[in-house]
């Protein structure tokens, strides 16, 4: 059974940093496209960053380029620097892989990030 568990969220002042982690069980991380999403109150869930299966090609939302870095080894990470109040959201880890029918699509439970002075 696949399980994704995020950790590392918390309260941080503007300009600060946090590192989110996603522990995955029941799957091999580099065989999936791994992504971080976030959802702020009253807003739709949005893609923050992704890393492709295999070669590990990364992509970022314009709002976080130059500030956030996605990486993986046996876990998935999101290094977040120069945080802004608008980064406040619940951050979710996602694992996705094309299947013969319905894609494999797994989500964690989320971790809260609050950026406030």
Q: Could you explain how this protein is built, in words?
A:
The chain is mostly beta strands and about 120 residues long. It is about 0% helix and about 50% strand. It has no helices and eleven strands. It has strands at about 5, 10, 20-25, 35-40, 45-50, 60, 70, 75-80, 90-95, 105, 110-115. Strands 2, 4, 5, 6, 9, 10 and 11 form a seven-stranded mixed beta sheet that branches. A four-stranded antiparallel beta sheet has the order 1-3-8-7, with no helix packed on it. β9 (about 90-95) and β10 (about 105) form a beta hairpin. The model has no long low-confidence stretch (mean pLDDT about 95).
Question: How many β strands by DSSP?
Answer: 11
Structural class by sheet pairing and helices: mainly beta
How helix-rich are the residues, as a percent range? under 10%
Based on CA inertia axes, which overall geometry fits?
Answer: globular
**What can be said about the biggest beta sheet?**
7 strands, mixed
Please mark out the parts with pLDDT under 50 across 5 or more consecutive residues, or reply none.
Answer: none
Overall pLDDT confidence: 96
Strand content: over 45%
User: Secondary-structure element order, as H and E?
Assistant: EEEEEEEEEEE
Measure the end-to-end span.
Answer: 40 Å
Q: Measured on Cα atoms, how large is the radius of gyration?
A: 14 Å
Question: What oligomerization state is this entry in?
Answer: single chain
Counted by DSSP, the helix tally is: 0
């Amino acid at each position: 059974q696949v399980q994704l568990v995020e950790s590392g969220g918390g309260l941080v002042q503007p300009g600060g940093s946090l590192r989110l982690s996603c522990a995955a069980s029941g799957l091999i991380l580099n065989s999936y496209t791994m992504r971080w999403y976030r959802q702020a109150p009253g807003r739709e869930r949005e893609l923050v960053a992704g890393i492709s299966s295999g070669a590990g090609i990364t992509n970022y939302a314009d709002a976080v380029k130059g500030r956030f870095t996605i990486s993986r080894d046996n876990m998935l990470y999101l290094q977040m620097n120069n945080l802004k109040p608008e980064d406040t959201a619940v951050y979710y880890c996602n694992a996705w892989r094309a299947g013969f029918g319905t894609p494999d699509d797994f989500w964690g439970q989320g971790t809260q990030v609050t950026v406030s002075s």
